[in-house]
Amino acid sequence: MPMSVHDPVAGTAETYRAFAGETQGRSPRYTELTLAVAEDRLVLGFLGTLPVAKRQPNLLFAAACYLLGAPATITTLRALVSDRAAELTDTMLTRRTQTNEPARCGTLLPALARLPQPLALLEVGASAGLTLLVDKYSYDYDGHVVTGTDSRAPVLRCQPRGPVPLPERVPEVAWRAGLDLNPLDVTDDDDVRWLECLVWPGEGDRAARLAAAIETARRQPPAVHRGDLLSDVPAVISQAPRDATLVIFHSAVLNYVSAPQRAEFARTVRDLGAVWLSNEAPGVLPGIPAADGARASSSSGTAPKRSRTRTRTAPGSTG
Ligand SMILES: C[S@@+](CC[C@H](N)C(=O)[O-])C[C@H]1O[C@@H](n2cnc3c(N)ncnc32)[C@H](O)[C@@H]1O
User: Fold this and answer.
1) What is the CATH number of the domain that holds 122?
2) What's the pTM?
3) Is 100 close to ligand 1, i.e. is its CB under 6 Å away?
4) Which of 54, 74, 98, 162 has the fewest CB atoms found within 10 Å of its own CB?
5) Is residue 91 in contact with ligand 1, taking CB distance under 6 Å?
6) What is the pLDDT of residues 54-70, one digit of tens each?
């Protein structure tokens, strides 16, 4: 039996070493930090005081950034653990990894634009609702430009691969709402700081894109309701206008719930008579294997079908 089964510190160290593989090539600073944590008894001991689900690198690094006002180094992280362990614990227990990546709209747009307009959009697992603003942003698909309805909103760049059906215009959104276990509020400075801290240092233009999307959302904040995707979808969609195409979509969410719960969610959505658009990592959705064929960026944009449209995950799938 592996040593980690008996030794929680060793198990956490293994988790951090594995996470370094995810940050590699994307955030050298977090690769260095992750590997340093994996060898650091002080930080590993601190993590051992938390519930297993709260020991994850993304959460630790975001919480440290939130308290320090800048991404941690191993030195500042060790000081935080030594001097402010209670605050760090509190932040990690009360906050969640809720990365909101507006660029994921680049993979949703081709499917949404092909549906009968106007649309009524429900996003489950919406975080702060930035991926609900799909019509506000503009897009540049390797030179194919689609202009959004908010001229001050960011331009999302996306590399289509294969025969992606690129639209001429953004969809018409008649109604939009989000659902999340813990909605983040774009008008709340603490929530915004948390969203910023979830972005890894050095990850290209993600931080600038997030800031621009938050400004867009602050001009007209999307409604994100508190609730669970397993039980609260019917209540929220009852508010949608009947003369619009109802779309239920989610992006980088289903890996947060167990496999049986994913299956239950899939059954519930199929029965609701809505268009269902799923932008999840390959294999996350039960009964739908990884797709081949047309892809946008690291994502695929397959044509929408009733209750069975899928796209692959977009940048920032690490939650
Ligand atoms: C990684 S974020 C993705 C946010 C957004 N969809 C995006 O693509 O940028 C996942 C979100 O799912 C939410 N979530 C996780 N489990 C949920 C559940 N059972 N019901 C509703 N929301 C949930 C989390 O709170 C979090 O805000």
Assistant:
1) 3.40.50
2) 0.89
3) yes
4) 162
5) no
6) 999 999 999 999 999 99
